[in-house]
Design brief:
By secondary structure, this protein is mainly beta. The protein is built from 2 helices and 16 strands. The chain has helices spanning 34-37, 79-83, and strands at residues 2-10, 14-27, 45-59, 64-75, 85-87, 95-97, 105-117, 121-140, 154-175, 180-193, 198-199, 207-214, 221-230, 248-260, 263-270, 298-305. A hairpin with a 4-residue loop joins β3 and β4.
Length: 308
């Protein structure tokens, strides 16, 4: 059960936003499995989670806008984080054991934003830092016996006392001559478990994406080239069982044509160079050390009909 409120206050060059939320969260198991009760004798829990945020946008002129956002958010553990019972979720090679008594996670975050726009260009930057208390994660627990013969072991959900995440997002969209459009984006996050002096798990590496697009024949024909490069992710969590992920570059090409206003044809080639790669957040196949690779070179054709 929750209550949310938000208030906006506008001036000539400044807009302020205040928001607040309070949530009452209660959970329990009506019929716990014996192996779960052997670890947790008490499964009922009730928590009150307050959250507040404040921010503002200042228009320096018609082209430049600065923003600052401050927030404190608190959340209870999810159904999986509380009650999963020796079961591998998704593509993870480890069985997971929930924690019904896990404390709420608290995130204190500040974002600084910048936007510059003209008739032909838009640049936006978001710098963020989050200090997290009782961060909900999971660690390998060798004292717990796995239930499935082909699993890698058991990871139990726990609270990490203190952790940080900081990073940035950058994007640049631009109109060129002769119908060409360009967009460039970068995203990076640095995460650290301050107690263990170890990287936080499930943090993707620096990701760079370049998109070149054209619009021709009264916007009926749209060629599009996308180049994506992800750096090696060597900051991995040993407590989580992560492995280093190598870098990769993927190039995609797509050609779209409006045959008539309501009917469109698209021809594309994904992964033109047939790069062998996998994402850092793709888990190893259960019971093996092999990662789950992304698709190699593939060609597709689609025909779309707009009935609106």
């Amino acid at each position: 059960v929750g209550l949310f409120t938000e208030y906006h206050l506008s001036f000539e060059k400044l807009r302020l936003v205040f928001s607040g939320r309070v949530e009452y969260n209660t959970s329990d198991i009506s019929d716990a499995a014996q192996e779960f009760s052997n670890v947790y004798s008490k499964t009922e829990n009730s928590q009150v989670n307050p959250s507040v945020s404040f921010g503002g946008l200042y228009n320096l002129n018609e082209n430049i806008t600065f923003g600052i956002w401050l927030g404190r958010a608190q959340r209870s553990g999810s159904l999986t984080e509380r009650f999963i019972n020796y079961f591998p979720v998704g593509q993870d090679p480890y069985e997971l054991l929930g924690n019904p008594q896990i404390d709420p996670e608290v995130i204190n975050q500040i974002d600084l934003t910048f936007e510059w726009k003209t008739n032909a260009s838009l640049v936006s930057v978001d710098l963020f830092t989050a200090y997290m208390q009782d961060f909900i994660s999971s660690v390998i627990d060798t004292s717990l016996k796995k239930r499935l013969p082909n699993s890698a072991g058991v990871r139990k959900f726990v609270n990490l006392d203190k952790a940080i995440k900081t990073g940035f997002e950058f994007s640049w969209n631009q109109k060129w001559i002769y119908g060409l459009h360009h967009s460039l984006s970068l995203a990076y996050t640095y995460g650290e478990d301050l107690d263990r002096d170890e990287p936080l798990p499930e943090i993707a590496p620096l990701d760079i994406r370049l998109n070149l697009m054209g619009l021709y024949f009264e916007n009926r024909f749209k060629p599009e080239l996308t180049i994506r490069h992800a750096l090696e992710q060597s900051r991995v969590s040993n407590e989580y069982g992560e492995k280093v992920t190598p870098n990769f570059t993927v190039i995609d090409l797509k050609l779209s044509y409006k045959i008539i206003p309501k009917l469109g044809l698209t021809l594309g080639i994904n992964n033109i160079l047939d790069e062998t790669f996998y994402e850092h957040l793709s888990r190893a196949v259960r019971g093996t050390p092999n990662p789950i690779y992304a698709q190699g070179r593939n060609i597709f054709v689609s025909l779309s009909l707009d009935m609106m």
